[in-house]
């Protein structure tokens, strides 16, 4: 890959990262959420997830769990792509945790939504999933290039 191609790929990834960041801010802090029941705080791990499953609304439970994971997977993908020296397992998961924690605090303070420890857990898992996907991509790329 030429230097010019690498530069264009990096610029494209930066553009995607900016779009992702704006979308994350919109979805978590700006967009109206019809599922919000007022400002509250959940500090009991798994209680929101259990409550959703117990409600019988499996679609809502599925969307909440998968949505929180998918929403933060790009963070786990972008960190190793942009910061080669900052792409270890612990570094990426802690970064995802801190970003998620910040989002939850901002949701609670600015939008009168719920601060939910379950969301932080699911978002952190999403960051880990994204990191694993990028690591697998790099692994298979090396295997293919060795042939």
Automatic annotation (TrEMBL):
The keyword Membrane applies. Coiled coil: none annotated. Residues 17-137 form the VanZ-like domain. The chain crosses the membrane at residues 12-30, 60-82, 89-108, 120-140. Keywords: Membrane, Transmembrane, Transmembrane helix. This is Teicoplanin resistance protein VanZ.
